[in-house]
Amino acid sequence: MSILGLKKKQAKTFKVKVSTMDAEMEFSCEVKWKGKDLFDLVCRTIGLRETWFFGLRYTVKDTYAWLKPDKRVLDQEVPKDSPITFHFLAKFFPEKVEDELVQEITQHLFFLQVKKQILDEEIFCSPEASVLLASYAVQAKYGDYDPNFHKPGFLAQDELLPKRVLMQYQMTPDMWEEKITAWYAEHRNITRDEAEMEYLKIAQDLEMYGVSYFSITQNKRDTELLLGVDAQGLHIYSPSNKLSPNKSFPWSGIRNISYSEKEFTIKPLDKKKEVFKFYSSQLRVNKLILQLCIGNHDLFMRRRKVDSIEVQQMKAQAKEEKARKKVERQILAREKQMREEAERAKEEMEHRLFQLQDEARMANDALLRSEETADLLAEKAQIAEEEAKLLAHKAAEAEQERQRLEVTALKTKEEKRLMEQKMREAEQLAVKLVEQSERRLKEADHLKQDLNEAKDAERRAKQKLLEITKSTYPSPDRTVDMASSIRMDFKNSDMKRLSMEIERERLEYMEKSKHLQDQLKELKSEIESLKLEEFLVLLENARMSFVSKCKMQCIQLHRTHTFCTHF
User: Fold this and answer.
1) Are both 363 and 463 inside the same structural domain?
2) Among candidate residues 211, 208, 205, 257, the one with its CA nearest the CA of residue 230
3) Between these two residues, 70 and 445, which has the higher pLDDT value?
4) Structural domain ending residue among the three candidates 90, 111, 131
5) Which of 97, 352, 387, 498 would staple 200 via disulfide (CB 3.0–4.6 Å)?
6) What sign has the CA pseudo-torsion 152, 154, 156, 161?
7) Same domain, 367 and 426
8) Which CATH number do you get for residue 223?
9) Mean pLDDT score across all residues of the chain
10) What is the CB neighbour count within 10 angstroms for residue 456?
């Protein structure tokens, strides 16, 4: 029994999911609830009081419908799913958003819905207006532009422009972002609700704003047209142009609207004007058209009457709320300004502190370097003092050495003069020896000549002897012995004389050479003792020249002696 009772109790409720433009909610509803009960529950939940603009829309077959407030929810053609899905949307649009939308929640819901319709291209918007609207949307979402925080690329994930506009120009996302940011930077100090209101004020001037379009025909020949229903009245469009209506019927000029099955009749207030009739093939669409016409006409008439007490209270509260928020914003702006000034002062103080710290560190480093430099200079001064003492000592030594060298130079000059005199004497002696050597060579040549003359005389003597021998006819043996005896006697006597002269000259030459060598050695030892290298080289060259000449003379004398010995 309890289980059956539980099932019976559960059957009295059903699940509903309601999607607003920025949230989703689920409710458990009673079966007996009417559309108004569910609608009021949603409005209370989101805190909405301007309920006459909104409704709960649901999808039925190939079109949509609005939940009727005076009929039970389950008795309408709602989907049979669980939970049943409804969309909480604006059903009617105001003529002037700044005058009619009072609550911020109302403005926010309209802003989100109109923004989605523009991005989905349900409302046509030019590229220029799209960029301006996008800048207000960015201001509403991100607040004031801060170049330190809003770096390039911060809008990369946001959908801000219709695809048609993006495809119309050959521009990169970065270029679009740059254009939007340029407008966005000019909206400084605009709050979120003010930015959304500016967005709606621009959007309400668009041709397709707040217009609901339906396909109709004007006559039996099925001439296709479009019927547009909005806050201003009814409009007839051609299917290819939703921006400029072919004919319009303002609410103030309509006396009556009726339909019978598929036929609609619009009766102008001026009875002289022609009644306009059109046809719609779907009964469900006809009911929707009539519903929108009645609702928009009621709001049109309501706007032209004195506001109700409820609306007056709402506007007064909204005015007070705006004034309070304005004061709060001013206080917040002052606090923000004071905070920014304090932060700037803090940053300046920190910067100044860092500068002072850097200056102190640099001064400390300079002090340390100065101390190190002072120590180094003191050390260098001590070293310089020691060097000065050493240089003074060296200067004294140098002065002594200079004086000694001056004395030595004087001695050296005297010795040099003596050496030069001895050199001249040695050169004169060498010249004399050379002259004697040349004279001896000439004497050797004379001797050679005398020897040759002796040989010739010997040969002539032999010739004469032979002639004498032949004339007296001596024996041959005797003749030979006589000739030999004469030749040997002559040869021995001449050779002895010549050898004695040569030996005597050689001995004399050797003695003179030895004496000259002793003089040269003595001169060389004196030059080495004085360490006069230039004199030594000169004397050495003179000695080598003299020795070479003496060797040549000795060789010539030896050759002469050998020649004479041979003969």
Assistant:
1) yes
2) 211
3) 70
4) 90
5) 97
6) negative
7) yes
8) 2.30.29.30
9) 83
10) 10
Please state, in angstroms and rounded to a whole number, the distance separating the CA atoms of residues 282 and 262.
Answer: 7
Name which residue leads in pLDDT, 282 or 43: 43
The residue out of 57, 90, 123 marking a domain boundary is 90
For the ranges 46-60, 336-350, 507-521, the one whose mean pLDDT is highest:
46-60
Query: In which domain, by residue range, is 266 found?
Result: 212-304
What's the rounded mean pLDDT across residues 468-482? 52
**DSSP category for residue 188:** T
Q: Does residue 499 register a pLDDT over 70? A: no
The reply to whether 477 falls in a domain is no
pLDDT of 477 > 90? The answer is no
Q: Where are the alpha helices (DSSP H) in 473-532?
A: 476-530
Q: What pTM was estimated for this model as a whole?
A: 0.60
In Å, what is the CA distance from 226 to each residue of 98, 247, 297, 559? 29, 11, 19, 155
Annotated binding site: 68-71, 287
Q: How many domains does the chain have?
A: 3
- Most confident range (mean pLDDT) of 150-154, 278-282, 515-519 is 150-154
Structure tokens at 288: 């929707």
DSSP 185: T
For residue 13, CA distances in Å to 84, 152, 229 come to 12, 52, 36
Q: What is the mean pLDDT of residues 126-140?
A: 95
Q: Are residues 298 and 368 in the same domain?
A: no
Share of the chain above pLDDT 90, in %: 37
| CATH code of the domain covering residue 58 | 3.10.20.90
Q: Which helix (H) or strand (E) holds 60?
A: strand 54-60
Q: What amino acid is encoded at 386 in this protein?
A: E
Q: 226 by DSSP, 3-state: which?
A: strand
The answer as to whether 37 is a domain residue is yes
The token duo for 69 is 């407030």
Can you spell out the DSSP letters for 195-212? HHHHHHHHHTTSTTTTPE
The pLDDT of residue 81: 84
On whether both 266 and 364 belong to a single domain, the answer is no
Can you spell out the DSSP letters for 349-408?
HHHHHHHHHHHHHHHHHHHHHHHHHHHHHHHHHHHHHHHHHHHHHHHHHHHHHHHHHHHH
Q: Is residue 367 part of a domain?
A: yes
pLDDT band at 321 (very low <50, low <70, confident <90, very high): confident
Q: Could you tell me the two tokens for 237?
A: 């469009």
60 in Cβ contact with 163 (< 8 Å) = no
Question: Is residue 558 within 8 Å of 444, Cβ to Cβ?
Answer: no
**Lowest-confidence pick of 7-11, 201-205, 435-439:** 7-11
Place of tokens 């991100």: 142
Nearest to 78 by CA among 40, 35, 26, 120: 35
The answer as to whether 270 is a domain residue is yes
Cβ-in-10-Å burial (0-12, 13-18, 19+) of 94 comes to buried
